Amino acid sequence: MAHEVGGVPELPARRLEPVPGALRTAIAVLLVGGAIGFGLALALDPTRAWRAYLFNWLFWTSIAQGAVMLAVAVTLARGVWARPIRRIALAFVAFLPLSYLLFLPLLFAADRIFPWLHEPVPGKEAWLNLPFLAARNLVLLGGLVALSLLFAYWALRPDAGLLRDSAQPERVRRLYDRLTRGWLGQELEESRAHANMLKIAPVLALLYAIAYSVLGWDFAMSLEPHWFSTLFGPYFFMGAFLGGLAATVLAVLGLRRALGLGPYIQPPHLHDIGKLTFGFCVFWAYLLWSQFLVIWYGLLPHEQEYVVHRLEPPYAPLSLLAFACLFLLPFFGLLGVRPKKTPALLGTFAGIVVFGLWIERYGLVYPSLYSGADALPFGWPELAAALPFAGLLLLSLAAFAARFPVLQLWLSPTDLEVLGSTAEPPGEVVTAE
Predict the structure, then answer these.
(1) How many domains is the chain partitioned into structurally?
(2) Domain assignment present for 137
(3) Among residues 85, 12, 14, 8, which one has the least CA distance to residue 416?
């Protein structure tokens, strides 16, 4: 059953069906153009092509998993305000199985990526060896993807039960039937789903921190094998969370407009997610500064080389651009209330953050592998490697939104408790369509 509590409107069961023709065309162009471009890059310079693939894989995987972790975070925090937003954040889970498969080619191209394969580092052989690196990342990332999908299953199951009898077309109805096997009744299933999500969420959050710390160590920090930082893991996975948060803002604004969700995703919701984006931009800068301050104060050569490679030509302009996009511009742009509540302004600064994280992930990889470059190694191969990832992410989001309601219909016991005892937000009462 759907619930109406304290004057709070029920949310409509809207899906992105049919997928807009412009989006279908964009996805096709990205996939075909990206495949051709990356194939050409492989033919001309396979080493540079695989390094471009690496930083793009890190970026696109980061924003997808970061968005899922936003849904996990608001579940853990019992953030009822995010009810119209959390399903859209969860939609990024559709990209994670693809991302896991796209991780495998990196292991086969390892000799073009890791300098320590050709020049072993004394004392670090136990950690920096390819079999152990492959095993730990496959296990950790596989567990993270599996647990993310399980979390999504319990989040979607109550809505599938609510809509399965009226779902169209037939393929969607069959999907809902599979999701609701062993159905115990709507009220019991909602309580059961909520309880299971609360059990999975803290484990998923802990596994995310561990897996993405290891991923950052292995595929970014180890590219300069003599350098290390104890803050690099948190810096890496919180950057991914920030990127996922900003990508969710863009998805929310896009679906809000495409599906006419303005009455349900209102300016207060945009204000709240805008405040989160602002806050985590500040937190990202705090982690960056905390890491930099110790290195600057210590003045130790092996600690400094990582920073020097990024603050000297030819990488200094891109490093400053990443800092501006991830902190300076969103800090001053989202400082007031109006930009957070204005879709065009909020979307602009969210887009700047996403672009900044792409540049930042480039900066984690290329200055380590091309530290002596005279000119900036940034051009069409890096852009070509980004296109198929972008196409696959959009395809995954479109497939999810075409099959499941983009707004969560069911109310958890926490939602019922909070909404039943708080204010009455504006909006007419509507039923699930």
Answers:
(1) 1
(2) yes
(3) 8
Whether 276 is in a domain gets the answer no
Q: List the structure tokens of 20.
A: 């807009």
- Cβ proximity of 309 and 368 under 8 Å: yes
At 19-30, the pLDDT tens digits run 999 999 999 999
Confirm if 130 and 137 have CB atoms less than 8 A apart: no
In sequence order, what E strands does 385-428 have?
none
Q: Which residues contact 101 (CB under 8 A, 6 or more apart)?
A: none
pLDDT at 165: 86
What is the residue range of 149's domain? 21-113+129-267+363-414
CB 395 within 8 A of CB 95: no
Residue 295 lies in a domain: no
Say if residue 188 is exposed, middle or buried (CB neighbours under 10 Å; 0-12, 13-18, 19+).
Answer: exposed
Phi and psi at residue 5, in whole multiples of 5°?
A: -130, 130
- Pick the closest to residue 150 from 188, 197, 211, 192 (CA basis): 197
pLDDT tens-place string over residues 123-138: 899 999 999 999 999 9
Instruction: Extract the tokens encoding 409.
Output: 């219909």
